[in-house]
């Protein structure tokens, strides 16, 4: 199969499935919209806050930890994806692949230990202990 | 490539030649997809019934009993009720985002079904990157959750969606790493090839050599599907329902649907990667050759239901985790365990 004219036909059902899934989700709501009753009034549309009139804006400030976790996720997930092709061809390469990947994991561990020591995984506002 | 092995069956039934036109192939694919969605929807409906029965009996109750014989029509009654409920869109500046969010969740859950082989000749698509595809597409539901929380214009929903997104992305890393051991052993990302690779071993299941990976995967699967003990996003005692607090009627049920389909997908992944899929270990089939007569789908469904039962069992047994414990478990225990599993597997594989 030459790279230039390769049509990934085995992915066609996946694409159709995605389209059907999206239509299914939207369709249920649209069809339901024809039969269900709809009587909105002002008080009903107030966001729920245990029966009290909401105080302040919902877009409150949130902890910086969420942001740090998101960054760590990007780093670690990319590393995980790097491991996939290595795992597939591991049988064919042998010792060289093993050493390379052990080095890769060691580098990953250095960053991981740094993040741990910096307290990126601590969610307790009192500083928290490292105990599990 | 035997991508179209399934369609041979369909072509034979419909009397169509195998090298037929694109239109006929398209029709065959559509029949396949509609069949899968219909069957999965039925299973989702009765998974809720199964859950209520299992938890009821574990708590020395009877569970649903009123609608139909032993409450068998309960899921249909629930579905009809939700269908006719008023669909409230709260006062928010982001009505379109609010309306789109549940569709994202159900889209992500349903699309992941596309690459799951239910038995050796039945699947929608047989692609080389099956596991990667499932991990990637199930991450789309995180967008749905963030959109729902952000557009709801409510503090509970906002906090719930933040927590949920952080939880999902944390455990996704552990889940992705836990499957690398499987990939090393099978040398493939294709779920069908992973199952046939397991048949090469006498024990027929990667569960035994990969018990560490299985443990990490199972815990991560609980967290990814927001099931107890990791149901923090919808912690009803703290966040009233988390990111879908403002949803009602059919839109709420789409979130619910997404959660249950995701549970079925995760159970299927676990069955395919660790439990040998639709096959039995060669040790057993060699001892009792009659078992080869049983169609593979029977074992697949039994294994998936066994796995789903564990989900319910855990829900009836364990209390909810505290949020900082949850993050600690994900980052400080599961990721090192998964990395250790990769290192051990690759060294053992090299020595063997």
What's the short version?
The complex is a heterodimer of chains A (132) and B (352). Chain A is mainly α and 132 residues long. Chain A has 3 helices and no strands.
Low-confidence stretches of chain B: none
Q: How many helices of chain B in DSSP terms?
A: 15
Count the helices of chain A. How many? 3
Radius of gyration of chain B: 21 Å
Overall shape of chain B: it is globular
> What is the rounded distance between the termini of chain A?
53 Å
Query: Which structural class best describes the helix and strand composition of chain B?
Result: mainly alpha
Radius of gyration of chain A, in Å, reads 25 Å
Please report the two chains with the greatest interface, counting residues with C-beta closer than 8 angstroms to the partner's C-beta: A-B, 72 and 84 residues
Distance between the termini of chain B: 30 Å
Largest sheet of chain B: none
By DSSP, the count of extended strands of chain A is: 0
Number of DSSP E strands of chain B: 0
Mean pLDDT of chain A: 80
Average pLDDT of chain B: 85
Features:
A: 132 residues; mainly alpha; flat; B: mainly alpha; 15 helices; 67% helix; globular
Task: Give an account of the 3D structure.
The complex is a heterodimer of chains A (132) and B (352). Chain A is mostly helical and 132 residues long. Helices cover 58% and strands 0% of the residues of chain A. The model of chain A has no long low-confidence stretch (mean pLDDT 80). Chain B is an all-alpha fold and 352 residues long. In chain B, helix 7 (155-178) packs antiparallel against helix 10 and helix 8 (180-186) packs parallel to helix 15 (323-351). The interface between A and B is large, with 72 and 84 residues.
